[in-house]
Amino acid sequence: ALDVSVQAAILNLLADLQSKEDVSYIFISHDLAVVRYLSDKIAVLYLGRIMELGPSEDVFSGPHHPYTEALLSAVPKLDQTDTARIRLDGEIPSATNPPSGCVFHTRCPRKIGPICEQQEPPLGEAQPGHSIRCHIPYSELARLQRAVVTEPA
User: Fold this and answer.
1) Which of 33, 118, 130, 138 sits at a 20 to 30 Å CA gap from 11?
2) Residue 73 shares a structural domain with residue 116
3) Going by C-beta distance under 8 Å and a sequence separation of 6 or more, which residues neighbour residue 142?
């Protein structure tokens, strides 16, 4: 909620301190542009569960957990490419009484049958250093997400 020039000055100060003083931050934000600028490693959380964890560029370049995919679809593109925004429907679960299985299954556009409702997926390594908590195999997420990007508008 800062003026853009004040925000930029603070972010530059944080980045300078990070590199010069070798400090680490735990930075919590919904502003994905700021997260990308400042972070080396990102954890995407939903209802307090890590859904995706990895180096910043891996998380932003994908393939992604379906929740990360939806978050990134809401970020405006500077190159004016028209990408479809993923709108999450369904019940927003209570953090104090999360659903069984995958906590994201009530809103997931890629839910695959009862397994998502009944079993919590493990946080599995999608590639070295990049983990995703999803029942959909990494290679299938990659295929599905490439199909969305290449579909004509």
Assistant:
1) 130
2) yes
3) 62, 63
Q: What is the pLDDT of residues 111-125, one digit of tens each?
A: 998 999 999 999 999
Q: What is the pLDDT of residue 4?
A: 86
**One domain for residues 11 and 80:** no
Quote the tokens at residue 23: 């400090």
Domain that holds residue 111: 40-150
Q: Which of 126, 125, 107, 134 is nearest to 51 (CA)?
A: 134
Q: From 44, 148, 143, select the one nearest 103 (Cα to Cα).
A: 44
Beta bridge partners of 44: 52
What one-letter code names the amino acid at 28? I
Q: Which residues contact 136 (CB under 8 A, 6 or more apart)?
A: 66, 110, 112, 144
Q: What is the pLDDT of residue 153?
A: 47
With CA atoms as reference, report the closest residue to 68 among 86, 41, 55. Answer: 86
What pTM, to 2 d.p., does this model score?
0.84
